[in-house]
Amino acid sequence: MRAVIAIIFSSYSLLSAAATPDTEYYSYLDSLSYSQAAPIEQMIHDLDGAPLKSGKYAFTHNQAEVGVRRNNFEFSYFYRYDYYLKFNKDTGQLAYLQRNDLPLPQNTHYDVYLRPNHLRAWGVSAAYFYEFNEQLSLKTRLNYLRATHTTDGYLKGQLNTLEDGYQAQLYLNYGYSRDTLLDRPEEDSDGHGASLDIDLNWQLNKTIDINLSGRDILSFIQYRDLTYTTATANTDNISFDQNGTIDTKPTVSGVERYRDQTQRLAARYTLRASYQLNARGKLNSELFSYDRHIFPRIGYQTRWQNKIWQLNYDLRSAAWGLGLSGEYFNIGLRSDSLDWEEAKALEIQLGVNLLL
User: Fold this and answer.
1) Are 75 and 143 in contact (CB under 8 A)?
2) From its phi and psi, is residue 157 left (phi > 0), alpha (psi between -120 and 50) or beta?
3) How confident is the model at residue 177 (pLDDT cuts 50, 70, 90)?
4) Which of left, alpha, beta for 180 (phi over 0: left; psi -120 to 50: alpha)?
């Protein structure tokens, strides 16, 4: 793996030193967040706010990158932050009540399911563009990832509240660099891995073009000696005390040790189709998928004063998107609310490129 990194950086240096008119330097920032049960701002600040609505997942992907392209090659350096949280309605309600110091309702059954997948990493990438003909092209990109923080595992089981207490059967199994559940001291994590991206462009005819992009379609990050915890909590330990009354003694058993662990990342796909209405205008349709959660979108774009202006609407998140791109830059913004504190969908894209 070190040899691969050395080759990438060496190639990057050679391309930088031998800049020609077909050498392009670029940078971009991509931030994408969606929360189904509560506004993003509320999810970030320990669920402080109104009660959660029905929802099963929340995710964020944030990446900053700088790179260079020359001929059919591309090399880049990037930093990324990802968090994908899956849960059920009962777990969301329990978390909300706990974070806001509210009492649990009595005589209520909860099915508990929580699965976090978190990554903070830097990396380098190498890509190659294949041009099969004037209508069809393909870009493949291999990313090396050096993970510095992770959380990957699950909590599941059942919880029943009673008039004078509770009954619970819970099982916890997760690896982490910082223990957010049991407050184990934070330790350094050592993760190395790779992921694969693709971009396919097909000009079907003079009026229709189709694009498919895939991010992290294959991925793995291998951790050595990662801190982890497995634990089982069970309150179904019933006996009789010396006075002949029922005595329930909850038991919690588990281990906190180190292990090798492999993390997989959620795949992201975008399928676009455009129809050329006239010399300036296009109709766009798009399907965005995050780990098989589908977001259909429709839009329109036009060219005015050598700039491309875009407007689209996400049918699932009810978010409007605006875009502007020129020869050396592109800007994009998508949100379902003008008040960012109430937004459940928020996307920001900023890009700058320079030809030398």
Assistant:
1) no
2) left
3) confident
4) alpha
The conformational region for residue 165 under phi > 0 = left, psi -120 to 50 = alpha, else beta, is: left
Q: What is the tens place of the pLDDT at every residue in 255-272?
A: 778 899 999 999 999 999
pLDDT given at position 161: 85
Residue whose pair of structure tokens reads 């689209």 in the numeric block: 312
Instruction: Say what the pLDDT of residue 355 is.
Output: 87
Encoded tokens for 158: 């059942």
Distance, in Å, from the CA atom of 41 to the CA atom of 83, rounded to the nearest integer, reads 14
Band of residue 6 on the pLDDT scale cut at 50, 70, 90: very low
Instruction: Tell me the C-alpha distance between 171 and 242, whole Å.
Output: 31
User: Rounded to 10 degrees, what is the CA torsion of 202, 135, 283, 64?
Assistant: 60
Q: Are 166 and 157 in contact (CB under 8 A)?
A: no
- Using alpha carbons, list the distances in angstroms from residue 100 to 51, 97, 164, 299, 336: 10, 5, 21, 40, 26
**How do strand 251-263 and strand 246-248 relate by DSSP bridges?**
unpaired
pLDDT in tens, 23-58: 999 999 999 999 999 999 999 988 988 999 889 999
